[in-house]
Amino acid sequence: MKKSYKFTKLVNIGDIVFISICFGIILFSFFQMINLPRGEYIKIEDGTHNEFVFSLESNVEKKIGGPLGDTIIVIQNNKARIQSSPCNKKYCIHQGWINKINETIVCIPNKISLSIIGKTPSYDSINY
């Protein structure tokens, strides 16, 4: 008995529509992300619930102590980053510069976090 194979399309019109919608959502998300407002202040929190707020307009270098040692935070040109930290993997250093509202850098081993904030509170999401 001879098997007959029918040629089937690999991509049909539904696949093209689905891919187009996904691509549109990705483009929309990208342009929303790059148009976020710039922050005005940086809030630094350490593991002992201390909060420090600095203006992003200041050009300073701050040393914040954590359980593992001192973390050096640099603020310059309306941006902030972690310059050095005593943690092992250094993920917090590799995050680079942040300057937009709700951007955050966290050094989990040393229990230090940096968040960019504005004059008024801005929420990523609200839980009830």
Explain this structure to me?
By secondary structure, this protein is of the alpha+beta class. It has a domain at 41-117: mini-chromosome maintenance (MCM) complex, domain 2 (Sandwich), CATH 2.60.320. The chain has 2 helices and 7 strands; from the N terminus they run αβββββαββ. The chain has helices spanning 13-34, 91-94; strands at residues 41-45, 51-55, 60-65, 70-76, 79-84, 104-107, 112-117. A 4-stranded antiparallel sheet has the order 2-1-7-6, with no helix packed on it. A 3-stranded antiparallel sheet has the order 3-4-5. A hairpin with a 4-residue loop joins strand 6 and strand 7. The longest helix is centred in the N-terminal third of the chain and has 22 residues, at 13-34. The termini are far apart. The model has no long low-confidence stretch (mean pLDDT 86).
Low-pLDDT regions: none
The main sheet orders its strands as: 2-1-7-6
| Rounded radius of gyration (Å) | 23 Å
Number of helices: 2
Q: Kindly report the CATH topology of one domain.
A: mini-chromosome maintenance (MCM) complex, domain 2
CATH class of one domain: Mainly Beta
Average pLDDT for all residues: 86
Distance between the termini: 66 Å
Fraction of helical residues: 10-25%
Order of helices and strands: HEEEEEHEE
- Mass-distribution shape: elongated
Strand residue content: 25-35%
CATH architecture grouping of one domain: Sandwich
The oligomerization state is single chain
Number of strands: 7
Biggest beta sheet summary: 4 strands, antiparallel
Q: What's the CATH superfamily of one domain, by name?
A: N-utilization substance G protein NusG, insert domain
Helix-and-strand structural type = alpha+beta
